[in-house]
Design a protein that fits this description.
80% of the residues lie in helices and 0% in strands. The chain has 323 residues and is an all-alpha fold. The protein starts with a helix and ends in a 10-residue tail after the last helix.
Length: 323
């Protein structure tokens, strides 16, 4: 079941954080604090442009500035998520590599391993983290949509719905360039970039070329399970915005902008906290799919993914009506 799967993933993440002790928790907390400070500066800039003195009608003419601010918010939040994915993904891969070496290497002597990945993320690999922040989130949404079209096409094919099949074939063909790009700019690339020192682009291309199922199926499966946590993040952010709406004294256009700002900042903080969990899962997906590492063979995620890969290998499809 979904709860058992999520619980097993939580056990794996807890095992990783325990192995690295407090240093990994501190790194995640510092990333959250840094994002909060940057967003506070961004929010001050946001409010200064759209203050209470600005009439509601004038906002319509400021849409280019508003789009720019929303894009800057998106890239800021995605940058810190990519930063966490880089550090946590590298730590996960090194944890299983240290297990493979059977004690010949320590996991995190004096916090050195966490410091190494954090330093690399902010220096030599800063470009990869910025690029991953811009592309990874969008690529996951493109892959999810493309996978949905393929599933619906196969389902319609089983029902012999010729016109529906042609419709989804057309959608898949139109999305082919985007899908090709998304497969080579996936979230798994950040873990590989941290562990092996490759650039983000090279890591994504190599991962897909060597282990395409890790991108086309395992990553999508992990993202699908994360939807429960994403819904939780939306709920918490919406609740915080509602509380501030009830307590706010100001009225007019500034109140709407204030509530939008509160929601965006709350949503950013909650999603980054939850991303500390999902980033470790992406690292585990890489560790499972790549043959160089050893993962627990009897864990629920390994058994589930092994069954899915076996079904895909033998051409077994699960259609929406069967799920």
């Amino acid at each position: 079941s979904r709860l058992a799967f999520l619980g097993s993933l939580m056990d794996l993440v807890t095992e990783i954080f325990t192995a690295y002790q407090y240093t990994l928790v501190v790194a995640c907390a510092l990333a959250l604090a840094a994002q909060t400070l940057v967003l506070l500066w961004w929010g001050a800039f946001f409010v200064s442009l759209f203050s209470s003195s600005l009439p509601l009608g004038a906002l319509a003419g400021e849409w280019p500035t508003l789009l720019f601010l929303l894009f800057s918010w998106y890239w800021i939040t995605q940058f810190f998520q990519a930063l966490v994915s880089f550090v946590l993904g590298g730590c996960v891969l090194w944890y299983y590599e240290a297990r493979r070496l059977e004690g010949r290497e320590e996991v995190n002597p004096g916090g050195a391993r966490v410091r190494l990945y954090s330093t690399c993320a902010l220096t030599s690999s800063l470009g990869s983290v910025c690029k991953g922040g811009l592309y990874a989130g969008l690529s996951s949404r493109v892959l999810s949509l493309s996978n949905l079209f393929v599933e619906q096409r196969d389902y319609a094919l089983a029902l012999r719905s010729t016109y529906v099949v042609h419709f989804y074939d057309t959608c898949i063909a139109l999305m082919a360039p985007l899908t090709h790009f998304a497969r080579r700019n996936n979230k798994l690339a950040l873990s590989i970039s941290a562990a092996y020192g490759f650039t983000y682009s090279k890591s994504g291309i190599d991962q897909y070329n060597k282990y395409p199922q890790s991108v086309d199926m395992l990553l999508l499966d992990a993202d699908e399970e994360m939807q429960t946590l994403n819904a939780l993040g939306n709920t918490v952010a919406g609740t915080m915005a509602l509380v501030f709406a009830l307590s706010a004294q100001n009225t007019g256009s500034s109140r709407s902008l204030f509530l939008l700002l509160v929601y965006l900042m709350a949503y950013s903080g909650v999603t980054l906290s939850l991303h500390c969990y999902s980033a470790a899962i992406y690292g585990f997906v890489v560790a499972y799919s790549n043959e160089e590492t050893i993962v627990p063979p009897d864990s629920i995620p390994v058994l589930r993914w092994g069954r899915k890969l076996e079904e895909r290998r033998h051409g077994v499809h699960r259609y929406p009506a069967e799920l």
